[in-house]
Amino acid sequence: MASESPDRARAVAFTLNGEAVRAHVPARMHLGDLLRQSFGLTGVHLGCEHGVCGACTILVDGRAVRACLMLGVQADGAAVETVEGLTESGRIRDLQDAFHARNALQCGYCTPGMLVTAAELLDDADAAASRAAIRAAIAGNYCRCTGYHAIVDAIAATAEARRQGRQNAGREAAE
Amino acid sequence: MSADPGGLTFLDRPNSYIGRSVPRPNARRLLEGRGVYVDDVAVARLGHVAFLRSPHAHARIVALETADAAAMPGVIAVVTGAELAEVCAPWVGVLGHFKGLRSAPQHALAIDRVTWVGEPFCAVVARGRAEAEDALAAIMVEFDPLPAVVDMEAALDPATPAIHAELGDNLAFERVLDVGDVDAAFRDAAVVVEETFQFGRHTGVCLEPRAILADWAAADGMLTVHHSFQAPHMMQDILCKHLALPEGAVRVICKDVGGSFGIKVHIYPDEMATCALALMLKRPVKFVADRLESFQSDIHARDHRVTARMAFSAEGDILALDMDDLTGIGPYSVYPRTSAVEANQVVNLTGGPYRHRHYRARARVVLQNKAPTCQYRAVGHPIATMVAEGLVDLGAARLGLDPLAVRERNVIPDDAYPCAGVSGIKLEKLSHQAALAKLKAMMDYDALRAEQARLRARGIHRGIGLAAFIEITNPSAAFYGVGGARISSQDGCTIRLDPQGGVVAAVSVTEQGQGTEGIIAQIVATATGVPMDKVRVISGDTQATPYGGGTWASRGAGIGGEAAWQAGKALRGNVLAVAGAILQADPGSLDVRDGAVVDAATGTERMPLAELGRIVYFRPDTLPPGVQPEFVATRHYVPKDYPFAFTNGVQASYVEVDTETGFVRLLKHWCVEDCGTVLNPLLVDEQIRGGIVQGIGGALFEHCLYDSEGQLLNGSMADYLVPMAGEMPDIAVAHVVSATASSEIGAKGAGEAGTAGAPAAVVNAINDALAPLNARVARQPVTPEVVLEALGLI
Amino acid sequence: MKAPDFAYARPASLEAALALLAEHGDDAVPLAGGQSLVTALNMRLSAPGLLVDLNAIPELTGVSEADGVVRIGAMTRHRDVGTTAIVRDRLPLLAAALPHIAHPAIRNRGTIGGSVALADPATEWPACCLAAGATIVVRGPAAERRVPADAFFRGLYTTALEPGEIVTAIEFPVPGADAVWGFEELSRRHGDYALVGLAATGRRAAGGLSDLRLAFFGVADRPVLARTAAAALEAGDLAGAQAALAGELDPPDDPTTKAATRLHLARVILGRVAAGMRGGGAQEGDPDGV
């Protein structure tokens, strides 16, 4: 819903974790603050508010974006997904299980953003083909606790399991 | 190690979780975005505080007008330093056991004078953070800039003004140690090597910034503080003291903490101010540092220049070490742990792995008008390790000896313990030789040397760097308590068995992601015989746990874990006493296993815990006479026989240096660590990996850069470079186990070992790569420019 | 770090956007991908009165090819610029530059038009525009202008955009069959701003290279075409080309990196890109190793 005239706050309507929502948002409020404060989605973490640390990474219209670098008013008409929604839908269940088993998180602050980034990577079946490719994909998500090795392991394990799953499904379909 | 009546030790109880790589139960909520960090805590009537911070390194505040700001939309209050001082008393960061340590009183909000860029001096509380920041811009302030001390080399020049006139000069602390006959050793040495090492000041950059929410409920007389912090009891004590409140009036809660690394164990003026504001305004007030103010105001660390020499015999024995350490802190020694500890540890630890008997060290700690510095993960160890390990490599090269062989020759032998290191540190049992042997095999050292030689012939410059190190863990009161600090070195655990057979364990050590709650659950489950999924751990609440020290100096597992073990054994004893009375069996013939009372010899189940609970809690009328069950047990523990539990390890780094661009590629990293009993390999190894990468940050990337006016030039995530996944190597970890006899669980600490040794390993590897080109680096961070300068290309 | 107060508009057409920008003058700024602008707002480095959001304007999107020209709409996201089939086929230089641009989440929102209009001298698209001889299509209240890349980047964050004008598209000539290209960037970490970078195009000629366009970035207040170096390289003189850079590039001194270091690195990557272009027609620095 595009509007010609300027205002300092406006009503927006969008889909949030699969649910239709509305909010009245000050123009200056970034999407991360909107999700945290107006919708209680505190799984969206703020680490820098200048787009570098990656902690606030969420999905907008299916793509990973920094919630701190979008204005809340820009969510109008979009489909927004946070780690909470991805958890409820089960879409990242295998990733979360792999992270848990491998202890690919410690303080947990980078984890939601890391999971969203990994989820987008794994959407492309061929993308996580090597440890170097995984490292490059998460190179914009700062983690101070793990040193990244365990995170790469967990993403690689999930990618491999999905590959196996696709192969098995392909075999079954062929039979 | 003591044994059960059944002859079983800590390690081999039935259904033991000890040594198992159990995933952390409390990690699940973090994976689902359901962590509760301070900024997530919802309270009514919350005020948000933003601070006006000094734009000058040193200045007098001439005028401060806040009326316009107070009238801005959403503003609740604007408070100056003078107003806040009526509620919050100042502090001085000195302790008695650092003889001669001097500092000046520091207020929560600076009053007449600001002494570093970023120092807070005025506070705006508003209904939202954005409105508070709007109001900051409306505060009128006039400064009279003063000369700033920004060069630690010049800080002690007579011509340089003293930051605090009453101190006379800028020397905060000096320590001198002189053991043996250093001059004679150097005189008689076959080889003497010398180097001046420079270390870049850097900082912790916890992903969750510092955050605190203070809520003064006047009717209850209760100040509740949600704090992203490591030591809730220490904070409670300090708030009581400086806000003039009785101990029972302050409750500090530390739930989920987004990284701490020592950054969050110190007293910050803005956090104290937030608590004082809650009292003044009688409503909850929250402060969350944004990233820019975090860089300016979190404690910094590791700003050192060390000149050192090492003397060798012709055969390669290290005979003596002589060093001079100069370190520049901020304008105040940080409270309450002091900013003298880092230098003190450099003196205590340099050369620690080795058996030389002649050692001289001088450390001088000087005040500067830069961000204050204090303990940050592996305090002093990265510097101590770099100095010694850098000199060992220089000596090895001069003597034409293999660097690994020189270390093998010189480490204190594994059968020499207990003994004291040359600096006087008491060592219970280390394993340098075993660790070196394990490392050599693990990395296939000889094969790597061969590969290095092959590639050198093709103009590819790879280097192998080693670093042997020791690390301080599990400190006793010797660390702080003896100096008068009200910092607890003891910890406790209370465990309660509930009617359905589950246990709740409240412990005074805290969690910041390292897995404290997980290993406590493992220990409690093992000790009590209750399955782990029926164990709940409570930590980080001064009202709900025993009194203790929290988590720092790698003490959580060793100290908190031992308390949990003892409490668990005690509870099991109480349970078996009651069960024995009910079953008319000798309690010594019974055990608790997998949630049931069993016959110890056969394992046959006699009574589920749930049945015992039903009787004890709901049918005490059916108990035999004289039986009063106590299904709650508390035990405390403090290390008594050694001031610190020293651990040891050795790391190796394999790098490739692009000698045209100066870029360093980290190919692989190894660490063999001896931290005593490994309670959970999964957690310990990840602590080590994380610590290694944090150390690599300081070695290659991280540097708080100041200009000649004391302005921090690179205080954002874009300009201050932290290690990211694209540049970090895979890291192989292995262990040697020398359990400590100071406790039954035998666990020493492991949290800081990675950071202690990584910079030396990496820098030594770079120098090993550059050696054929007669180039050498001695300055961290080693940027491409540093390498290019060493190569003479710039 | 909360942004100051401002007004916001989200016009549905280019005309409406231009009208708003004309009406509010200096007090209004266009909002493209927001990856730089929202950062500046959060840090209070910028305090405009009005943001004009360009994200709902259909005329600014789309990638198409006609008459030997690939036209990329200004609001095309970095990620889509680099992965669209037309670009992968026709403009491999841009596809090669993509993995160097920041990180996936930034690439999903940031736009090529925003990047070109901002003209940060350490970024990839302006240099690619210069190397490829692109034309920047600009619209103001009055008319549309086409500005060659050579004339577009004027200085530090300074372009040929007049007040009230925005970039609407960038047009890239489709290289011929004999085209060669090269791209190399050195940065401390994946996705960081370049210490130095080079986007290069040319043609294979008898015995070497011709029509070389060497666009360096990270080495001055704007992307720089090193013409003297190009001429020397065309003549087969790499050493001469590298030496010429000292006169053509004016790298900044900054707290972490001296000008001399950037100059040295520029010489090194010139050698590497030249070798790649001579060797096989296409060459790209490995984004996985810095």
Automatic annotation (TrEMBL), chain A:
The keyword Repeat does not apply. It is an enzyme of class 1 (oxidoreductase). Residues 10-86 form the 2Fe-2S ferredoxin-type domain. One of its GO terms (molecular function) is anaerobic carbon-monoxide dehydrogenase activity. It comes from the Bacteria. Keywords: 2Fe-2S, Iron, Iron-sulfur, Metal-binding, Oxidoreductase. Its EC number is 1.2.7.4. The keyword Magnesium does not apply. This is Carbon-monoxide dehydrogenase small subunit.
Automatic annotation (TrEMBL), chain B:
Pfam families: Ald_Xan_dh_C, MoCoBD_1, MoCoBD_2. Residues 32-147 form the Aldehyde oxidase/xanthine dehydrogenase a/b hammerhead domain. GO terms for molecular function: anaerobic carbon-monoxide dehydrogenase activity. It comes from the Bacteria. Keywords: Molybdenum, Oxidoreductase. Its EC number is 1.2.7.4. PANTHER family: ALDEHYDE OXIDASE 1-RELATED (PTHR11908:SF132), XANTHINE DEHYDROGENASE (PTHR11908). This is Carbon-monoxide dehydrogenase large subunit.
Automatic annotation (TrEMBL), chain C:
SUPFAM superfamilies: CO dehydrogenase flavoprotein C-terminal domain-like, FAD-binding/transporter-associated domain-like. The keyword Zinc does not apply. It is an enzyme of class 1 (oxidoreductase). PROSITE patterns: FAD_PCMH. Gene3D superfamilies: 3.30.465.10, CO dehydrogenase flavoprotein, C-terminal domain (3.30.390.50), Uridine Diphospho-n-acetylenolpyruvylglucosamine Reductase, domain 2 (3.30.43.10). Its EC number is 1.2.7.4. Pfam families: CO_deh_flav_C (PF03450), FAD_binding_5 (PF00941). GO terms for molecular function: anaerobic carbon-monoxide dehydrogenase activity. This is Carbon-monoxide dehydrogenase medium subunit. The lineage of its organism: Bacteria, Pseudomonadati, Pseudomonadota, Alphaproteobacteria, Hyphomicrobiales.
